[in-house]
Amino acid sequence: MAKSRREAGKTNINNDELPKAKLNLKNIKKSLRLFTYLGKQKWKFIIGMFFLVGTAAVGLLFPLKSGSLFGFLGKSNQPTEIVTSQLQNLGLTLLFILIIQSVFSFGRTYFFSQVTENILKGVRDDVFKKIIQMPMSFFSKNQSSELNSRMSTDINVISEAFTFNIAELLRQAIVGIGGLILMIKLTPFKIAMWFLAIIPALTVITIVFAKKIRFYSKNFQDKIAELSTIVGEAVTGIVNVKVFTNETYEIKRYGEKTSEIKKFGFKYGLFRGTFFAFIIAFVFGSVFFILYLMIKLYLEKELTGEQFGQFLMLSLFVAASLGGLPEQIASIQRALGATDRVFELIDGEIENIELSNNHEKQTKGEITFNEVSFCYPSRPDFSVLKNISFKAESGQTIALVGSSGSGKTTIASLILRFYDPLSGNILIDGVESKSLSLTELRKQIALVPQDVILFAGSIKDNIAYGKPSATDIEITEAARKANALDFIESFPDKFNTLVGERGIQLSGGQRQRIAIARAVLKNPSILVLDEATSSLDSESEHLVQEALDKLMVGRTSIVIAHRLATIKNADKIVVLQNGKVQEIGSHEQLILNENGLYYKLCKMQFEIS
Questions:
Q1: Residues 107 and 47 in one domain
Q2: What angle do CA 236, 144, 416 make, to 5 degrees?
Q3: Side-chain-side CA neighbours of residue 39 (13 Å)
Q4: 403 and 547 inside one domain
Q5: Are residues 206 and 123 in the same domain?
Q6: Contact 518, 470 (CB under 8 A)
Q7: In angstroms, how far is CA 21 from the centroid of its own chain?
Q8: Which of 402, 437, 399 is nearest to 417 (CA)?
Q9: 272/329 same-domain check
Q10: What is the CATH number of the domain that holds 420?
Q11: Which burial class, exposed, middle or buried, applies to 475 when counting CB atoms under 10 A from its CB (0-12, 13-18, 19+)?
Q12: DSSP assignment, residue 152?
C-alpha cells in the first residue's frame, strides 16, 4: 500500500530516474542505427559537425585573445595613443571572434535540429506503427503508461541527446583537452602542474557531491509527495474517515510521515552543509592558491601579464568544460538506454495485419469451436477454456452464460483472434480462422462491449470509425438505426458535438448507442455483444436493446449476458462453468432440466413457475 502511495505521488518522470546504458562500443554501435532514418539528409549531419568543430576551435581562440588584455597592464609607460590603438584592435578582434562563434553555434544548432527532427519523425512513426500492430498478449504484459513513456519520454531523451548532449560532449571535450594542452604550452610548468594536480581532482569530488545531493533532493521530494498523498487521500475520502472514526489513525499516519521527513531532512541538511564547507575550504582555497602562485611568478618576472591573462581565461574555460563532461556523458547514457528500449518495440513481433484495408469479401458468419482449449500467456498454468465445442449457424444468435471467470469473454477474444487456441480449432464458414488473414477476419466482426471507450473527437468521428470512408448520409442512417439520432440532434452541435476524453461527456446509454451505430456502419457478418446492457438504467437499456435487436437481424451474434432475461429468444444458449460447456440448448429446452446449471441461474434471477 505504501508503494502504491509513493507511485501516486509521482506525477512526472525525472530524467535522472531513467535507466542508463553503459557507454561502450556495443551500445554505441546499436545507437548508430538511428542514422538509418536520415536517408538523404546525412549531409546536414556532416555540415553540423563542421560547425561543431568550428565552435570548439573558436572557443579556444577566445580565451587566448581575451587573456591578452592583461598584457596591457604592463604598458602604462608606453605612449597612450599606441596602447589605445592596440587595445581597440584587440577589442575588434574579440568582437569578430564572438560573431564568428555565434555563426558557428547557430549553424551547429540549426543543422543538428534538422538531423534530430528527421530521425525522430521516422522513429515516432515506426514505434507507433509497431505498437498499433502488436498482438493482444503484448498489451496484457505492458501497461499503457509504460508505452506512453517510451513514446514520449524515451524519444524526448533521444531528441535532447542529438540536439544538445552529443554536440556539447564533443565541444567540451575539445575545449577541455585543447585548453589543457595550450595551458601547458603557454605558461610556466609550475602553474600547469598545480592546476593539473588540483583542479581535476576537485572537479571529480564536486561532481560526486553534486550527484549525491541530487539523490537526496529527489528522495526528499518523493517523501514530500507521499505526505501530500496522505493529505489528498484523507480529504478526498473524508466521508470514510468520519464513518469509520479513523481520525486518530490518519493523524498517526501523517505524524509518522512527518517524523520520517524530519529525520531525513536532518541528514540532507548535514550533507549540504558538508558540501558547502568543502566548496569554501577546498575549491575556493585551491583557486586562490593558484592565483597566489601566478601573482608571485608575475612579480618575480617569470610570468608576463599576457601569460597571466591567458592562463586565467583558459583555466576558467577548461574547468567549465571538464565539469560539464560527466553530466553530458550521463545524458548520453540515458539516451543509449532510451534508444535500446525504443528499438525493442520497433523489433517486436507484430500481428500479420494488412494495412491496405481493401477487403470487400463477406462471410456467411458460421462459427464452429472444435475441442478448443486455452490459457493466457501471462498465466500458462491456468486453463481458461477446456475442450469447448459448439456451432453457430449463419444468422443465429448464440448466448454465452455462466458465472464470472467461466470463459465467456475469452471465447469472444478467440473469435476475434486476439489470441489463438492452444489446442483444437475455430472454423469460420468451415475454414480454420488461423488460415484467414487477420484483417479479412476482423473486417467481418463488430464488437459492442460493456464499457464503451470513445475517442476524444466528435460524435461523427466516432461513428465513422466503423467505416472511415462513410458519407454523412450513411453516418446519419447508422445513428438512426442505433436509436441515437434523437439525442444527437438535441445537441447544439449535433454530429459535431465533442464527446470528451473516453466519451466522458456522454451518458453510458448514449455511448452504447454510438458504439452500436459504429457497428451498423461496419456492416459485419458476425456480431459480438459483451454484456452490452448490463450497466445501464432501465430506460437506456430498453433503447439500447431495441437498437441491438435491429442490429442482430441477419447476422451471427455471440451474446455474453448476465441478465438472462435478455437472451431468452436466443437460438442457442451455451452454459459455461470453470471453462467447460455444461449445457447447450434453447431457453425452453434448458429450463426443463431442474438439475441443470441454467435452471439454477434462472431461479436466482427471476421466479420460475
A1: yes
A2: 120
A3: 10
A4: yes
A5: no
A6: no
A7: 19
A8: 437
A9: no
A10: 3.40.50.300
A11: buried
A12: I
The contacts of residue 314 (CB under 8 Å, 6+ apart) are: 63, 64, 67, 179, 182, 183, 186
Same domain for 336 and 408? no
pTM for the model stands at 0.68
Q: Which amino acid is at 298?
A: Y
Over the Cα atoms of the chain, what is R_g? Answer: 36
The dihedral of CA 136, 142, 144, 146: what is its sign?
A: negative
Whether 358 is covered by a domain: the verdict is no
Retrieve residue 315's grid coordinates: 583555466
Domain coverage including residue 490: 453-523
Q: 344-355 burial string, b = 16+ CB within 10 Å, else e?
A: ebeeeeeeeeee
321: pLDDT strictly greater than 60: yes
Which three cell numbers, joined as nine digits, stand for 355?
A: 494495412
Same domain, 401 and 440: yes
Say if 318 falls within a structural domain. no
Nearest residue to 411 via CA among 443, 369, 379, 363: 369
Q: 505-531 b/e with 16+ CB inside 10 Å = b?
A: bbebbbbbbbbbbbbbbbbbbbbbbbb
Residue found by looking up cell 477446456 in the block: 386
Is 257:230 a contact under the CB 8 Å cutoff?
Answer: yes
Question: Is position 503 within any domain?
Answer: yes
Same-domain status, 223 and 124: no
Given a cut of 60, is residue 9 above it in pLDDT? no
Residue type at position 112: F
Q: How long, in residues, is the chain?
A: 609
Instruction: Count structural domains, the chain.
Output: 4
What is the rounded average pLDDT for all residues in the chain? 78
Distance CA 451, CA 454 (A): 10
Instruction: Give pLDDT tens digits for 424-435.
Output: 888 888 888 888
Q: In terms of domains, do 42 and 158 share one?
A: yes
In a domain, 3, yes or no: no
